[in-house]
Design brief:
single chain, 338 residues, mainly alpha, two-stranded antiparallel ribbon, 14 helices, 79% helix, 1% strand, globular
Length: 338
């Protein structure tokens, strides 16, 4: 019982990192799900469009979460609100151009994911504001909304009802800003208190974010061009699974721990860090052990077996849920994964 209470207390103390995680990684979950369900080419499109949004939105995020949580005043929040409000539409157009400028992708899918990323970008500011005042009710409602929206999207994806699928896709794209109205009212009503944006304060943070964002986009484009969308979709999914824990800790958990370090006991922070590191090691060695065992025995690894199960029953379609079944042979699946 004591261990259960510790886990519950840990989850309560990390509720806002969970909010940030469900806000930032919903598209990543969609990408991984598409790959496991056998829609590798569609997963590649999602990965390329997501890479384009990262190249522009993450590059101009300017380390906002750390700056807002680390500030005692609301000055950084107001600066970020003005900064993002000015750049939102130009960056959305830039992301749309990048998503189809090098490798062709679905325009409708691109618009949907860009709208989703734009909503996440603005919602991130509200999440940081609510975290500073410890608004647990907002956190629980946001988590519930996001989990339900992505679950409903995956369910609708498997149905043949195209209007329902389009409606759910629309709701999922706008779901991060369903609670945004009170925040916008507060920001607009305090517009007379906005301080001017000093680019010298933003440029160092923009530079560090830009390197990560551009390198991710370039890597995804190169993979799609070199190995094709089918294999690239599987690789995007593999990279996403391998890097998700690290990304969650970097963008969600880490800033919260730094902001609360004066109120949290050092042992609690150390335990959480050690717990996450242990999970990394466990997942990594499990994958390495499985692949190494399969090579040594000259047989399939468990991950290839799981993939083949999904692949054999997959649907082929062009973004809209109108399936036509195709069952490739074992030799074809083995060749693709070789």
């Amino acid at each position: 019982m004591n261990s259960i209470q510790r886990i519950q207390n840990l989850l309560k103390s990390q509720v806002f990192p969970i909010v940030i995680a469900v806000n930032m990684f919903s598209v990543t979950v969609f990408l991984i799900a598409l790959s496991f369900l056998g829609y590798s080419e569609l997963a590649a499109d999602v990965g390329l469009i997501q890479g384009a949004t990262l190249a522009v939105f993450l590059a101009f995020s300017a380390n906002a979460r750390n700056l807002i949580l680390g500030s005692d005043s609301s000055a950084h929040l107001k600066q970020q609100f003005v900064f993002r409000g000015i750049l939102l539409f130009p960056l959305a157009f830039a992301a749309f151009y990048l998503s189809g400028g090098v490798v062709e992708t679905s325009s409708l899918l691109a618009i949907t994911i860009i709208v989703r990323r734009s909503a996440e970008w603005i919602a991130e500011l509200q999440i940081n504001e609510r975290e500073k005042v410890n608004d647990i009710h907002y956190a629980h409602l946001f988590i519930t909304t996001q989990v339900c929206s992505i679950a409903l999207l995956l369910i609708a994806f498997g149905l043949e009802n195209k209007p329902f699928y389009g409606f759910v896709l629309f709701v999922w794209a706008f779901s991060p800003v369903l609670q945004i109205i009170p925040f916008l009212v507060r920001m607009v009503s305090e517009s007379n208190e906005f301080v001017h944006i000093n680019l010298r304060d933003f440029l160092p943070h923009v530079g560090s974010s830009w390197i990560i964002a551009i390198s991710t986009f370039v890597l995804r484009v190169l993979l799609a061009l070199l190995v094709g969308k089918f294999v690239a979709g599987m690789l995007y999914s593999a990279f996403a699974i391998g890097g998700m824990l690290n990304a969650i800790y970097t963008y969600a958990v880490g800033p919260s721990l730094i902001a609360k370090q004066e109120n949290l006991k050092t042992t609690s922070t150390d335990r959480l860090t050690k717990f996450i590191v242990i999970i990394h090691y466990f997942v990594g060695f499990t994958i390495i052990g499985s692949v190494a065992t399969g090579i040594a025995e000259g047989s399939e690894s468990v991950f290839f077996k799981i993939y083949r199960i999904f692949y054999r029953g997959r649907w082929r379609h062009d973004f809209s849920p109108t399936p036509s079944y195709a069952y490739p042979s074992d030799s074809e699946a083995q060749r693709v994964c070789a």
